[in-house]
Structure formats: structure tokens, C-alpha cells
Design a protein that fits this description.
There is one protein chain. The chain is mainly α and 300 residues long. Among the domains are: 64 residues, no CATH class; 113 residues, Tetratricopeptide repeat domain (Serine Threonine Protein Phosphatase 5, Tetratricopeptide repeat). α8 packs antiparallel against α9 and α15 runs antiparallel to α16. The chain is elongated, with a radius of gyration of 27 Å. The two termini are 35 Å apart. The relative contact order is 0.06.
Length: 300
């Protein structure tokens, strides 16, 4: 979902679709007994309750109290209470910076290089005295996977369920495609489906993905990194338990042939995730209880 931004006369950023506290206050003041302001705020059930008992004078008094509360409420507090989802999506849109586009471009460059290498190994070099061979349909360049590009576009438009559906179709055509496995893992992570996200990351690594730092830092995999099983997944070479760990270079040794000292565990990614949780709490996107639960998972 894409929101259109504009600026009001005071220079404040306004997103079309956001609820305005002054509008809610006016509706509560004049039509409060009918619960119109509750329908405006998306509280349909409460609005129906107002309509069922609008002939009672107390409902109009409650509407007047609501109007006073809206007019006296701070804009930031009103947005956190009634525009929380829109603010969260605006934050997602703001955080979707060049790094996501760069990640997609890197995946596409990797895919083009892989296809180029496969084509070079498929065709034999021509002899100087042989006539020019006619191109045959069997050796023509295979068409691009249409579901892969549509899945990426839906992913950028925050239609994660649609992106997952297209990525699944793309994998039926190219089941060993590394970029598609990584992208669908990101979509599953944002949709809070960790089992499928882990499975597709495992397949991406199995088929050649080795940018493990991206798994530890990519914004779209943040939900996956706070799961209890992520550390075991990472220690197993970003493979699921029971699968062979990704091949790694042998342990280094000193001049006497003794094993080198074990490296100190890097906690930088853990600190980064705690920082991100703190920022979400400060912006009102996480409650104190949700923050405590996620922090306990990270430090547990």
C-alpha cells in the first residue's frame, strides 16, 4: 500500500488516509449521539452501540465528552491511538531505502552472472573452418521468469501475500533460484511465518547463497532474528538442523600446529537488534509489554 504525502500550511507532514482529531471532535460535538465519530475512527462496533441507544440523553453527553477529549488531545497522542497502523506503514515506507533496492539489484546481477556462466559452459567454442551455425530453438536464451519480477514488484508495494504467491510460482519454474528463495524468505519473515522463512533461507544457502552478513543485517529478516531458533540456525551454517552445514574453511592453526584460539563471539548484530526494538518503542509502534517480550527473546 502506497501513501501519498503532502504538507499542510504549518509544514507538518500529512498522509492521505490518516484520521484528523479536529474532524473527529467536530463529528463528536454535533453527531456524537449517533456515534458518527466512532465510525470515522474505524471503531465500527462502538459506533453501532451509540446508534442503538442514541435516543438516551446520556449518549449525547458522552459524545460531548468525546469531543472535548479530542480537541484537548495532543496530535502525537491522537496519532498513536487512532493512526497507529498508518504510522507503522509510513515508517516501513520511510525505512525502505536504497539498501533494499541495492539488495534486489545485487541479486539480479548475481542471477545474470550465473546464467552467463551456464551459457558459456553449454556452448562449445567454434572452429575457424566451420560455417556459422544457425540458432536453434533448443539453444535459444530461455525467457525470463515472469512471476519473479511480479513478485518483486508486489514485495516493494507491501503486498507480501501476493509476493509469496508469485514467488511460489517462480520456484515451480526455477526451483534452484537463489534470489527467489531469499526474497520469499524475507516475505515470510515480514508475514511472521518463521518456519517457511527458515526453510527457504536453508534452500538459498544450499543452492549457493553465501552472503551470511546480509541474513544477520537485512531489515526484512528482523522478525526472524528474534526467534529462539535463529542462533542455532546461524551456528549450523544457516542451515536447518539435520542438514549439512555450509562448507567452511578449516580452522587456522599456529606455527606449532596447535589450534588457534577461539574467536570472541560477535554481539554487534544483537546490539543492533536491541537498538531497533528501542526505536520502535519510542515511536509508539511497540508497547512496553511487547518490548519486554522481544528483549527477553533476544537476551535469552
Amino acid at each position: 500500500m502506497i501513501f501519498r504525502h503532502a504538507y499542510n500550511s504549518s509544514g507538518a507532514l500529512v498522509i492521505s488516509g490518516m484520521k484528523e482529531k479536529n474532524v473527529a471532535g467536530i463529528l463528536a460535538l454535533f453527531l456524537g449521539g449517533f456515534g458518527v465519530h466512532r465510525f470515522y475512527l474505524g471503531q465500527t462496533g462502538l459506533g453501532i452501540f451509540y446508534m442503538l441507544f442514541f435516543w438516551f440523553p446520556v449518549m449525547w453527553i458522552v459524545g460531548l465528552i468525546d469531543a472535548i477529549a479530542f480537541f484537548s488531545m495532543d496530535n502525537e497522542k491522537f496519532d498513536r491511538k487512532y493512526n497507529r497502523e498508518l504510522l507503522y506503514r509510513r515508517e516501513q515506507e520511510r525505512n525502505y531505502d536504497y539498501r533494499d533496492d541495492e539488495a534486489m539489484r545485487r541479486m539480479e546481477r548475481y542471477e545474470r552472472r550465473r546464467e552467463s556462466r551456464s551459457e558459456r559452459s553449454y556452448y562449445r567454442p567454434k572452429k575457424h573452418n566451420t560455417p556459422k551455425r544457425q540458432s536453434s530453438p533448443s539453444r535459444a536464451k530461455k525467457p525470463a521468469n515472469p512471476y519473479k519480477s511480479t513478485g518483486v514488484q508486489k514485495f516493494k508495494d507491501y503486498d507480501y501475500n501476493g509476493a509469496i504467491a508469485d514467488f511460489k510460482k517462480a520456484l515451480k519454474i526455477e526451483p534452484r533460484d537463489v534470489a527467489t528463495h531469499f526474497n520469499i524468505a524475507c516475505a515470510y519473515s515480514i508475514s511472521e511465518q518463521p518456519e517457511e522463512a527458515f526453510r527457504h533461507l536453508d534452500l538459498a544457502v544450499q543452492f549457493g547463497f553465501n552472503d551470511f552478513e546480509k541474513i544477520r543485517e537485512h531489515d526484512k529478516l528482523a522478525y526472524l532474528r528474534i526467534q529462539d531458533e535463529f542462533e542455532d540456525f546461524a551456528k549450523n551454517g544457516f542451515r536447518l538442523p539435520g542438514n549439512e552445514a555450509a562448507s567452511a574453511p578449516p580452522a587456522s592453526s599456529n606455527k606449532q600446529g596447535m589450534p588457534a584460539e577461539e574467536e570472541v563471539e560477535d554481539h554487534s548484530h544483537l546490539l543492533e537488534q536491541l537498538k531497533q526494538l528501542g526505536e520502535l518503542r519510542e515511536k509508539g509502534l511497540l508497547t512496553e509489554e511487547e518490548f519486554a517480550i522481544q528483549k527477553k527473546r533476544l537476551l535469552g
